[in-house]
Amino acid sequence: MATLEQQRAQDAWEKCAGYTKEHVNVAKGLPALIMNSGLMQVLAFCHDKGGANEAVAQHLRAWLGQRFKGVIRDPGFEPLMQALMNASPADYQAITAEAFAWLKWMRQMAAARRGGN
After folding, report:
1. Radius of gyration in angstroms for the set of CA atoms belonging to the chain, rounded to a whole number
2. Predicted model pTM
3. Which of 20, 49, 58, 70 sits most deeply, having the most CB atoms within 10 A of its CB?
């Protein structure tokens, strides 16, 4: 059975297969944005901005939905935002920590698949 780190790596690897340089740049910038503004604000920003921002955020939402099935029943934008608004502080913290852990892999995998460009 794969470790959680291996699962994150595999998920990121599979999801970034069609990423462009713009997607890679978004993936690289999201952790700092989350650190400065918070997970919900960044998900709302990405949804509003659309394009590569929404694509990377959608992949992140799908991963979080898979990892936190008890809290996130639907990884769509609005249902996930509702779930986060209603989450306990401990769950919200755990979800945010998981977002950082997954994005660490996404940043690396996306850049590697693009050849570092």
Report:
1. 13
2. 0.94
3. 58
pLDDT of residue 117 exceeding 80, the answer is: no
Structural domain boundaries, residue 101? 40-117
Q: How far apart are the first and last CA of the chain?
A: 33
Burial of 53 (0-12, 13-18, 19+ CB in 10 A): buried
With respect to residue 104, please indicate whether it lies within any of the assigned structural domains: yes
Q: How far is CA 109 from the centre of its chain?
A: 13
Long-range contacts of 67-70 (CB under 8 A, 24+ apart): 67/98, 68/94, 68/95, 68/98
Burial status of residue 67 (CB atoms within 10 A of its CB: 0-12, 13-18, 19 or more): buried
* Residues 6+ positions from 58 with CB-CB distance below 8 Å: 75, 77
Number of domains forming the structure of the chain: 1
